[in-house]
Amino acid sequence: MNNFAFLYLMGPAPEGQSPLVTFLPLILVFVVFYFFMIRPQVRKQKDLTNYRGNLNKGDKIVTTGGVYGKITDVKETTVTVDVGDNVLLKIDKSAVLKDSSDLEKQR
To answer: What is the pTM of this model?
Structure first.
């Protein structure tokens, strides 16, 4: 059954009913989505951006590729990471996910 037939079968809207009452469920759904999905995601992204901007030499990090290492040099858009045995990787700051010391605290 197509949508137009469904709307026709519903009949006319009752007289005297406010348009606000009609759209209230839709507005409530949007508010719930905002507070439970959109707002936490924006906050998480802001925290990650602040973390990447405050990276310092000596911080232990994990990259998006799962590489664990220690920062040896920080530049404007890149960081140099020592991953062990004096192997240095130059990584873009946007590939840094989190501080690996946070993972050690969870164990």
So the answer is: 0.68
